[in-house]
Amino acid sequence: MTTQDIATITKGNQLSEGKTKIIWQALNLPGMVVVESKDDITAGDGEKHDVIRDKAELSTTTTCNVFSLLKQCGLPVAFEKQLGPKEFLAPGLEMIHLEVVARRVATGSYLQRNPHVPNGTVFPQLVTEFYLKTHGCEFNGHKFPESTPGQSYDDPHMKIVGDEAWLYNAHIPLATQEPFLKLPLNEVFPQGNGKDVMARMTALNTHAFLVIEKAWKILGYDLLDWKIEFGWVNGEIYIGDVIDADSWRVMKDGQKLSKQAYRDNEGLTVMEKVLRRTAVLTGYFRIPEQTLVIWSGSPNDKTDVFEKAFESFAQGCPCVKMACVVNSAHKKTIQSTFALQNFEFGCKGLGASNPLPDPVIVTNVGMSNGLGPTCAANSMLPVISTVPDPVDANSSLRMPSEVPLMVVADPKLAVLAALKILAGRNPALYALLRLKQEEHAINAIPLP
Ligand code: OK8
Ligand code: C2R
């Protein structure tokens, strides 16, 4: 869609209005909607309500920043383009009536349901939870029990047992309650197979959370948990709604950078600052251009193992490229030095040829390793040497002072080690690599 097209998009009929946003038809764009934010802020299912000047603009900026990053990572996100200060264009979704939460840290309502878990317990494996989205304590004609103050039955916690969705009050210990309602799965999921839909949402929720977790970590902030929503477009599940300071708990040094500040009555001035800072900081979310350099000492050194490993570990990761170069430090010392300087300092602006941005070097040399130690001694770049033949290991292991060569003997693992270094400043790559580790991570709850 061109800038010209975007300039001509106008709002058609209003499709719905919620507490914090309005959804409009996008005129002459079938299937597309305009999502417009409002200045309203609410909490506790509407018990608390205020208006903050510029909230609509700030929340829209944040959502567009977050959705752009997720889209760049290849995730299906209902986001096309920001249209104006308070609006973005998106494919219209048929929403799934669930709030999907990811938790890295035990806090909030999790502690109410699980009082045996100490506040702040870290979950090495992200916890995904589902809450049925309800209003007025009712769903599909089913009336819920009477709520008591602070213990609303709205947005109940949902567990799948067999072919049923069991609903629990989200604010009472799970151990002390029976499900207050059991619904057939197809009532919650009129479209698709309920279990498959849950599995897909769990996978997308985990992947997306990892991306944004790292994006915040790079800026020095912790993403503790979040709530996102999903919907259907053309038979596919998309991340929808918005993701902004209302959606998550983000913290730094005990300071809250989310709507939690408002929920905890820290005042509207504080909340306005939180919204402003969130909009500015999420503007720095990005995927850097990076390079994995496989540096061989001879044209006869094979690189196919490295190429296969790169494809399998970094598949689908935008902006990370692998470059294979050949140069012997023993035989072409001067050329190797120039190449190393170009990797480290070469930049397009100064006309350097073929700059390889933000590289990590993996050396692929047989016999006596001169290349790895030379690169490690003469640049600030991380250098990892493989060991094709154990007979030559000592030339990679016994280093003089100030020659910090890293050695990962197996080429596949050397690629993974290099990618982990790059992932330290790359949210897309971090999410891809961490996803695999999440599968075998275990949440051990410390004893109180
Ligand atoms: C949500 C994670 C945390 O607007 C309202 O009235 C209701 C609103 C609210 O503020 O209470 N509810 O939009 C909401 N519910 C959960 N979350 C929301 N944004 C997020 O989900 O990151 C919340 O910020 C877990 O929340 P918990 O611990 O309360 O279940
Ligand atoms: P030739 O094919 O040039 O004879 O190299 C190469 O990586 C190769 O495996 C034979 C083997 O020597 C390795 N070589 C090094 C270095 N340069 C070449 N170890 C170096 O600078 O460390």
What would you note in describing this structure?
This protein is an alpha+beta fold and 448 residues long. The protein folds into 2 domains: 1-287, D-amino Acid Aminotransferase, Chain A, domain 1; 290-425, Rossmann fold (3-Layer(aba) Sandwich), CATH 3.40.50.1970. The protein is built from 13 helices and 24 strands. The chain has helices at residues 3-7, 55-72, 109-113, 185-188, 194-218, 260-263, 268-282, 304-314, 333-345, 371-378, 394-397, 411-423, 427-440; strands at residues 11-17, 21-26, 32-37, 40-43, 48-51, 81-84, 87-91, 94-95, 98-105, 122-132, 138-139, 142-143, 157-161, 164-168, 181-184, 222-233, 236-240, 248-252, 255-256, 290-296, 320-326, 359-364, 383-385, 406-407. The strands form 5 sheets. Strands 8, 9, 10, 13, 14, 15, 16, 17, 18 and 19 form a 10-stranded antiparallel β-sheet that branches. A 5-stranded antiparallel β-sheet has the order 1-2-3-7-6. The protein has a 5-stranded parallel β-sheet with strand order 21-20-22-23-24, sandwiched between helices. β1 and β2 form a beta hairpin. The protein is elongated, with a radius of gyration of 26 Å. The chain starts with a helix and ends in an 8-residue tail after the last helix. 40% of the residues are buried. Bound molecules: ligand OK8 and ligand C2R. Residues 19, 42-46, 99, 101, 108-110, 225-227, 246-249, 259, 263 line the site of ligand OK8. Ligand OK8 is lined by residues 19, 42-46, 99, 101, 108-110, 225-227, 246-249, 259, 263.
